[in-house]
Amino acid sequence: MKKVIAVMLAAIATLLNTNPAEARQYWHTDDSGGITWAVSPGDKHSDHIEMAGKKVATVLRYGVDGNGAFHINKSMVWPMLRTIPNNTSGCVMRRFDWNPLDAVTVNGRSLTNEKVKEISLKEALTVESDFDNGYYGSWKLRRTFFPSTDLPVLLEKYTLVNTCKKPLRVEIPEGGFVATTDPAKGVAGAYRIEGKTQRGGVFNLQPGNSVSFAAQIAATAPGEKSLTPDPDKELAKRAALVDRLMSTLVLETPDTVINKMMDFAKVRACESIYDTKGGPLHGPGGESYYAAIWANDQAEYVNPFFPFTGYDYGNESALTSFRHFARFMNPDYKTIPSSIIAEGDDIWNGAGDRGDCAMIAYGAARYALARADKAEAEELWPLITWCLEYCRRQLNADGVVASDSDELEGRFPSGDANLCTSSLYYDALLSASYLAKELGKPGASKYQKEASTLRKNIDKYFAANVEGFDTYAYYKGNDVLRSWICIPLTVGIDEQAPGTIDALFSPRLWTENGLLTQAGDKTFWDRSTLYALRGVYAVGATDKATEYMKRYSGTRLLGEHVPYAIEAWPEGGQRHLSAESGLYGRIVTEGLFGIRPTGFKSFTLTPRLPSEWSHMNLRHIRAFGTDMDIEVKRTNGNKLQVAVINDGKRQNYTISPDASIKVKLK
């Protein structure tokens, strides 16, 4: 009877979740290393993208209207210009429709009759348009929007090219605006927000010639000088950063969309780090979360990814975040706050204990192993062991970890003990055992035994038949499928893998936007989809994972809302929160390639080569203190030929599919 009900529910869910019209892919990968939307006549579409530098973030809401004209709204965030109350979102934020083109004229006329030809994304948002004003002339216009890498400025570049057979008189006025914020609402008093143009004037433009000018929106604190940076130099700096991030941890597979999604994931994961008085702090973004850190977004999601990228500022931000959490260790083992906000000056702990110590121990131990810096690992060891002891003290009578909530902070029920917290604690115990051996600390065998016992308890406590699937109840008494049943798979707990995979990809949970948080609901959070894809690879369902990885990557990179993983919907309107892009990268490092750090110079490698791929390579892996390549290809006998290359040395292996290799770097 249960199976009949499950089939009926699945059929109903299929009808509810099926979009009768396939979601359109507006974009394609291009030769520049980015993506481009070739705008067709009649296209009408809008989107938004978040971009960031060390002192500014911007959400650009842009699109093309039914007449072919471009529109944009610039949402500005200055994380270090703190406001009162100085809370999680307490910084200067403004939205501007200011358009420097409004006052520009060609032959005495404003710029009308626009037809956008293409929009591109890589280091900047670039828009190419044609204008035809008949008797008054025709021209092309390129707009470029991007944040400064290290100044509190959004920059805009405009280039106009004369495409007609007669000269054009172009008038570009100098101008802009100045706004002063309410001094009573600023931690440092009144802040100055300034929009202005650069390189204005009157230009007689001959056929084929061009003229460029620039604009900017900046904000400064009392006593700081007005900024007028060189837009060309700033664009070069932004392009250099993006190229640098795209040229390490390079994925090479026959699937160009997944390759490119990985490139963009590294950019978003690494750009959102703010130069605060409390040190570099990675921030989720989303016009809400800046100059602050969380035990999930930073400690758990993105910090273990940074060592693989070789981005020094990312590694520095990870260490800084762990140092902030370590400030709250205490002899009474009261939980560490979920979030440290306002550049390190305050905390947020509004959801109680979310399993934060399990998150921190998990992330810090994985980071320390992959980072392979003994001094850093020694510094992090007290934090890791304190968090593990905290979790041990939270074990309930059934031997799993109790907590007040989970990372969804009460949005969905999580019971007194949830699957996520215990799974993270399990993995943290394993990493701590490896790290103890590396540092010559006591406790390695103790942590291994505790992990073994916990694994049995997790299966005994959480394993259940839910909606006809032999999987996990997310908490005791949970009888509705939840997306977080994927968590055990990501840490190698595979006792319920077959039923869990079937449940994850059933119509009850999977939609065109990935996993629903709870079956029968409409809410989705990308983080659970990203964990699920990693976990399904990790337990060897390679082709199934690849099928859905392709769907997800095509939607997020080339579809309606691009080019990054998102937070959630409907909450937040699919914000491009940064740490989710780190989770996408970890599908590749920990899922496809199965890299599991076991020491400063050692790791297990379990490559999952899809049957439709002949090969896959991961170039310039910067973890373990080296610059390493991993190459995987299929032999004629259906074996895998694997090469690990570092410092000019090549270690070759021939293995069966799904076999693991214990790699010790020379």
* Helical residues, percent: 25-40%
- What is the spatial order of strands in the main beta sheet? 1-2-9-10-11-12-17-15-14
What general form does the structure show?
globular
**What class would the helix/strand composition place it in?**
alpha+beta
Number of helices: 15
Stretches where pLDDT is under 50 for at least 5 consecutive residues are 1-22
Backbone CA Rg:
26 Å
Mean model confidence by pLDDT: 95
Number of strand elements: 36
Major β-sheet annotation: 9 strands, antiparallel
Distance between the termini: 58 Å
The fraction of residues in strands falls at 25-35%
What does this entry look like structurally?
It is a single chain. With 666 residues, the protein is of the alpha+beta class. It contains 15 helices and 36 strands. The strands form ten sheets. A nine-stranded antiparallel beta sheet has the order 1-2-9-10-11-12-17-15-14. Strands 18-32-33-34-35 form a five-stranded antiparallel beta sheet. The protein is globular, with a radius of gyration of 26 Å.
